[in-house]
Amino acid sequence: MKTDYQYPLSLDWSVQEMVFVTNFYTKIEQAYEVGVRVEELLEHYQKFKTVVRTIGEEKRLGKQFETVSGYSIYQCVKMAKEKQQGKIKMERKSYGKKSRM
C-alpha cells in the first residue's frame, strides 16, 4: 500500500466537509486492503455526496484519487451498490474480476 500520497481535497470545503470526504477515501482504502461492510461504505458515500454534489466533480476527484492510490472509487461504489449488504473486498486494477467476502 502506498502511504505517501495526499487525498484530493478542495480548500473551499469546510473542516466538516473535508472530514466527510477523507473518511470516505479511508473506506475505499479499507475496501481494497482488508474489506469493508457495504452498509458502512454506502453511508460514507452518502456523506461524500453531500460535499461532492456533481457527477463531474466526483469523476474528477475519483480520477485524482485513483492516480495517487491505485484504488477506484467508481468500481468500489458500483460493487457495493450491486451487493447491497455484507462485506466486499476489492482487487486493485482488476475491474473485470470481483472479489467478494
Overall description:
This protein has 101 residues and is mainly α. The protein has one domain (15-88): Orthogonal Bundle (Annexin V, domain 1). 58% of the residues lie in helices and 4% in strands. It contains four helices and two strands, in the order αβαααβ. The protein has a two-stranded antiparallel sheet. The chain starts with 14 loop residues before the first helix and ends in a 13-residue tail after the last strand.
List the topology elements.
Elements: H1 15-33, E1 36-37, H2 38-51, H3 55-69, H4 73-83, E2 87-88
Antiparallel strand pairs: 1-2
Helix pairs in contact: 1-2, 2-4
InterPro entries: BH2638-like_sf, UPF0223
Pfam families: UPF0223
The CATH C-level name is Mainly Alpha
The average pLDDT score comes to 90
Can you tell me the CATH topology? Answer: Annexin V, domain 1
Number of domains: 1
Specify the CATH homologous superfamily: BH2638-like
By oligomeric state, this entry counts as single chain
Pfam family, one: UPF0223
InterPro entries: BH2638-like_sf, UPF0223
Concise summary:
This protein is mostly helical.
Features of the shown structure:
Annexin V, domain 1, 101 residues, BH2638-like_sf, mainly alpha, single chain, two-stranded antiparallel ribbon, UPF0223, 4 helices
